[in-house]
Amino acid sequence: MSEVAGKPCILCCAITGSVPTKANNPAVPISVSEQVESSHAAVEAGAAIIHAHVRNDDETPSSDPDKFAALKEGLEKHCGGVIIQFSTGGRSGAGQERGGMLPLCPDMASLSVGSNNFPTRVYENPPDLVAWLSAEMVKYKITPEVEAFDLSHILRAIEMSKAGKLYGRLYVQFVMGVANAMPADREVFDFYVQVMRNRAPEAQWCAAGIGANQVVVNEWAIAAGGHTRAGLEDNMRLDRHRLAPSNAALIARAADICARYERPVATIAEARALLGLAPMPKAAE
Length: 285
Hints:
- The chain is α/β, with parallel strands linked by helices.
- It has one domain (11-278): Aldolase class I (TIM Barrel), CATH 3.20.20.70.
- Helices cover 35% and strands 18% of the residues.
- It has an 8-stranded parallel barrel with strand order 1-2-5-6-9-10-11-12, surrounded by 8 helices.
- It starts with 10 loop residues before the first strand and ends in an 11-residue tail after the last helix.
């Protein structure tokens, strides 16, 4: 039996993102009703966290708080207490507009603590905006999922957590495979894991791979004792010949990897406890 056997693995489903369209894969959920339906199926397949963006009717990214409010209401009604994580990413808005949905008090929100290159532009996260977003999350008691695109982001997250600038328990996600940013490199991944174990041993960590790297990074994370993310935001294919039919199919694939490593898929209640979040609402139990 491996040293990670028996350790629950949290599966996060990134359902939509800001980039994929129905022209890329008809299964990408765009409307709020599609997102709720897709999320429900992903939860049934094992997802405990729904990482959510919202879109306009023409499929362009949005940061409209009203759209986030409608999505939150639908997820709370239909998805059994799932952990709701809103994106504050830079493709959906500029400046403080990126945090306009935080007063809705989701369980979690993504937080990028540094800048880096993306395929065709610089993903800007200036210090003043990072400070404002993190302060808003403290104000509204929202646990951030720090999206780390580089080693410096991991170190900055640990520093901010120790300084009390991040709400709740530290949770860091390694994002690997974005063009022009950190590739899906096993040596680098192993180093990231060691940094977390040495410098933030009480923290939880997760890893996500982009495109064909999704299943690769899923396995690395599961085998190393971490948590992982899958979904149509990051990857629209099961393999080079087949589109993924749903978010649930990508979560089910990650759950199958968990089974191979004898790791139970974390229930929503277990995930909430691991991440130090509020327990499941009574109505959802």
